[in-house]
Amino acid sequence: MEIPPKSPDGSEKSPQSKELLTSNTASTLCISSRSESVWTSASRSKWDIYHKPVIVVSVGAAVFLFGIVITSLSCIQTKNKNVYKMCGPAFLSLGLMLLVCGLVWIPIIRKKQKQRQKSKFLQSLKSFFFNR
């Protein structure tokens, strides 16, 4: 191990400067990065990948069915008919919007996963050929 040079007045370096010299830049970057998937190689379960779109689809289907019930109540009941006629289509449209957004989100995630797999494969090929 190398002995650090002493300062002109004979005192040693401060502990803070030693700490700065021994810090590992790569680990600092790893800790401060936003995306953990770049640094970790652990595979995620399907639920971890698809839980958000599944929840959006489920909520959208529930709201859509609620809109169907409210709209059908406007045909059956005579009391508060105007309220049912206003709220029913609003719930129908909101539920349909959430349902479609969730159903479109799933293929987007699948495409993203395939691109990540291709990217990892190409990076491994690149490192194999260029790190010789």
Automatic annotation (TrEMBL):
Residue numbers spanned by region Disordered: 1-21
InterPro entries hit by this protein: PIRT
Principal cellular location given in the protein's record: membrane
An annotated Gene Ontology molecular function: transmembrane transporter binding
Pfam family, one: PIRT
Bilayer topology annotation: Multi-pass membrane protein
Protein name: PIRT protein
UniProt lineage: Eukaryota, Metazoa, Chordata, Craniata, Vertebrata
Gene: Pirt
